TrEMBL record:
This is OGA GlcNAcase. Pfam families: NAGidase. One of its GO terms (molecular function) is beta-N-acetylglucosaminidase activity. PROSITE patterns: GH84.
Amino acid sequence: VFPSLAQAQASVANEVYQELGQPSVFLFCPTEYCSSLCSPSPSQSCYLQTIGQELLPGIGVIWTGPKVVSQELSAVLLEEVEAVLRRRPVIWDNLYANDYDCRRVFLGPYMGRAPGLMSRLHGLLLNPNCELQANFIPIHTLGTWFRSELASCAHPDHAGMEVVAALGDSQGAQDGSYSPQEALELALRDWVAEINQQALEPGR
């Protein structure tokens, strides 16, 4: 029925999206969801070109970066992806994912993401460690990064300005710059306070 996999996927996604009344959040994960899966590159991928052309503009497209687990995300790569998809991507960030090797747990700060990335994104999903308690530092430092991105946006929209004002008293990222080391120290301090608070609860 369809001349390509991409056209089949786009057709099905579009039909479901319309059947659901075009919800404000509707995400599509392409078969080629990172640069290493594209041939020969994201911008020259026939598959991604078709997805960008055929997928309705209200549908968000998930992207993990250069690899499935990307140590770095650059503005240059996101520009290339945005151009071929004809929309800003939703980053599916596997930086902390350990479901592929449960012997490892990732406890470091959120890092390796270039400053100013938020303006290139439609959204960001963090894929955490499988162990719930191990995600305090990843989520806390992601929050610090997010605050710094809001504060440094060159052209925030009205809603962004309101969020910046609301977060004005938050600790960290006060000057709009993000330091992974400072973010880690803030997270550790708050984690110790959380652990101490839980230790005082009855039955602990």
